[in-house]
């Protein structure tokens, strides 16, 4: 469900790529005044299935302040005199990214919404991950956790969102595309380990709705929320679900399991996900944010295939890099 909240003036840090773009559209569709803050290098774009009239209206009404979040001086010059009700920080990776903006807006905004990651959690024998689980100090996402801790420390009214693997049309992380590309050419799917690792996917539109539901929600202040689809899925299951989304027979998918420790792929990424159980519980978000995923994993993959992969293939925008696959298959 979407909450009825009086229009707010909202700043999105980023806002032109994938999750930020979907959030921009969601907030604008609810009547909020949306302002983007970025380097001005990526133009606003029409989303799949968005009516052109609606896109042009959004493109005109959503303004952009050009600046560089990496520079404290530029941040003060470009945002110091601006007033916002809420800020969505979509692209901070390190505490050094978060701190200047959080310091600037502390005491000046009703809500600071931070895009974190479920990747902060320490690997566990007990799943799913809950928001109270221990974090991994060696995680490549530790800057996200450190940012959360800083937001708590300074007392800014914040909410942190921890999605698992985000997917959907316009995904710049070749996650579902990795499977689609191989299935499209009837290639075997190489999967590390036994293929039964459970992972959490979360559709980008559902993520946008959950994040937008934070606005005007006092219960969400000071809280952290996991976001993903309602069910986890195995790696083998993703391969079969992608095949079904493409209109292929999932039972005909050829899967080759392999031990990644026996191969040297250099700097190349042979598989788009971590070979471990990685999924999170979403009951807290469902309760506090009055939210529930609207896409099943299969429905979400169909959306991604029809509204992204098929167009990319037609435009000859696929990489067709199967070097790692061939190394495994030839072993």
Molecular structure report:
- This protein has 331 residues and is α/β, with parallel strands linked by helices.
- The protein has helices at residues 18-29, 52-61, 72-79, 95-105, 142-154, 176-184, 204-212, 235-245, 283-288, 297-314, 323-329; strands at 9-13, 33-38, 63-66, 86-89, 111-115, 158-163, 165-167, 189-192, 198-199, 201-203, 223-227, 233-234, 255-258.
- Strand 4 (86-89), helix 4 and strand 5 (111-115) form a beta-alpha-beta unit.
- It starts with 8 loop residues before the first strand and ends with a helix.
What's the arrangement of strands in the largest beta sheet? 3-2-1-4-5-6-11
Number of helices: 11
The general outline is globular
Helices and strands, in N-to-C order?
EHEHEHEHEHEEHEEEHEEHEHHH
Q: Regions with pLDDT < 50 over 5+ consecutive residues?
A: none
Query: Approximately how much helix is present in the residues?
Result: 25-40%
SS-based structural class? Answer: alpha/beta
Give the overall pLDDT as a whole number. 96
Largest sheet: 7 strands, parallel
Strand content: 15-25%
Give Rg in angstroms. Answer: 20 Å
Distance between the termini: 51 Å
């Amino acid at each position: 469900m979407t909450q009825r909240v009086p229009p707010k003036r909202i700043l999105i840090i980023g806002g032109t790529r994938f999750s930020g773009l979907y959030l921009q559209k969601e907030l604008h569709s609810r009547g909020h005044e949306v302002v983007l803050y970025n380097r001005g290098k990526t133009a606003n774009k029409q989303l799949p299935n968005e009516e052109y009239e609606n896109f042009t209206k959004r493109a005109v009404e959503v303004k952009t302040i050009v600046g560089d979040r990496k520079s404290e001086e530029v941040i003060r010059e470009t945002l110091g005199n601006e007033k916002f009700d809420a800020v969505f920080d979509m692209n901070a990776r390190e505490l050094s990214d978060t701190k200047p903006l959080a310091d600037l807006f502390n005491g000046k905004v009703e809500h600071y919404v931070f895009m974190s990651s479920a990747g902060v959690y320490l690997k566990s024998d007990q799943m799913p991950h809950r928001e109270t689980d221990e974090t991994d100090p060696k995680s490549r996402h530790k800057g996200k956790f450190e940012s959360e801790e800083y937001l708590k420390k300074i007392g800014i009214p914040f909410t942190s969102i921890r999605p698992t693997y985000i997917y959907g049309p316009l995904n710049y992380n070749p996650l579902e595309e990795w499977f689609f590309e191989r299935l499209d050419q009837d290639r075997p799917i190489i999967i590390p380990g036994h293929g039964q690792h459970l992972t959490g996917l979360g559709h980008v539109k559902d993520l946008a709705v959950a994040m937008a539901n934070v606005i005007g929600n006092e219960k969400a202040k000071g809280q952290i929320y996991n976001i993903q689809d309602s069910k986890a899925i195995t790696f083998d299951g993703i391969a079969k679900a992608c095949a079904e989304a493409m209109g292929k027979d999932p039972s005909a998918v050829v899967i080759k399991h392999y031990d990644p420790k026996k191969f040297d792929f250099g700097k190349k990424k042979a598989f788009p996900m971590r070979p471990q159980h990685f999924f999170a519980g979403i009951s807290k978000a469902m309760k506090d944010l009055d939210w529930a995923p609207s896409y099943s994993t299969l429905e979400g993959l169909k959306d991604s295939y029809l509204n992204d992969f098929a167009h990319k293939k037609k435009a000859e925008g696929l990489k067709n890099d199967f070097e790692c696959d061939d190394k495994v298959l030839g072993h």
